[in-house]
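EI: anyone free to look at a 300-residue chain?
SC: sure, send it
EI:
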Amino acid sequence: MSVRELVVLGTASQVPTRHRNHNGYLLRWDGQGVLFDPGEGTQRQMLRAGVAAHDIDRICVTHFHGDHSLGLAGVIQRINLDQVPHPVAAHFPASGQRYFDRLRHATAYRETVSLTEVPVLADGPLAVTEGYTLDAYKLSHPVESYGYRLTEPDGRRLLPTLLAEHGIKGPDVGRLQREGVLDGVTLDEVSEVRRGQRFAFVMDTRLCDGVHTLAEGADMLVIESTFLDEDVRLATDHGHLTAGQAARVAREASVRHLVLTHFSQRYNDPADFERQARAAGFEGELSIAQDLMRVPLPKR
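SC: here you go
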């Protein structure tokens, strides 16, 4: 059975708190697992969330600030220690290659797994699989940062009434799906386009074109909201978003499920982020991320 969900491993910005670990997010996409921004303590959070090294097929790092990348060393070594049986791909800004190299080889260990480095050089596609295309778009932060987007190919949704009109039932339905035509009836005549799901991951950034491109039409948008709106000047100065800014992006992009995360330790009440997101006009599903929560992608 296919599963598509976000497993939240950590939600703190800059420093961890008593209740929030450094960043870490695993996207389960059918049989694939994409790990985003493994900060310090990610291995421990994986254990608590029931995530194994075998679940990781791809690692995506937005930028090389410690709260988004210091867990790389442990995660990579764990992948090798557990002898993960499949190759793992790693994506990160090409300008941070020296940081990736240091983290990958931080200490001595035995390499047993094929880890393929695919640095991000510019906006555009990074990988194409049967289940999705992975794209990256540049963000605006004091160090080079990229957001990521998974897009499922469009499919077809069969319409029972049209199948019945053409007398197609039982095993013939499967045959039509496989071959595209059955006794002169085409698949297009008895189905409609089912738009593929879209998942966007946006971390440390000011408002910029990349934020809007990544968010456009997303079924789920995971986005930083480090500050509350009253601290918008701090947000802009340090290359971050406020809750209201993130929610307006989601509203304008017709996002279905908004997940706010990456919260500054200066705030004590998570409900403030929800109030400001709603005040900004976002009316879709809204989650204020908490460590170890699981968020299913909206049903297609």
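EI: The first strand starts at residue 4 and ends at 10.
SC: 👍
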